[in-house]
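Quarterly update from the structural biology core.
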Amino acid sequence: MTDTTPPASSAPPSPGPPTRTGPLAPSEAERAAHARARGLGAPTIEGGRDPDPDAGLREDRTYGRLLLLMVGAIVAAGFILGILANLITGG
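Predicted structure, tokenized:
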């Protein structure tokens, strides 16, 4: 007689599909209650596509230029103060 039962696997059983929320995340009902308290119809996820990305990009370029100017000013001030210190002390 042949045995038709599959051999027992030594691997642990799989935990199943991953859950959508972590152990410390609020439940769906709790999120919905907080949303209703804020006057919303349902919980929302913040973010998404920016309807006008050009304004944000312009602001980024402006602050990028300002950052480069400030770094340049700090480096230049170091050189200028170093040269002045050498001239004053006669070193």
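The radius of gyration is 32 Å.
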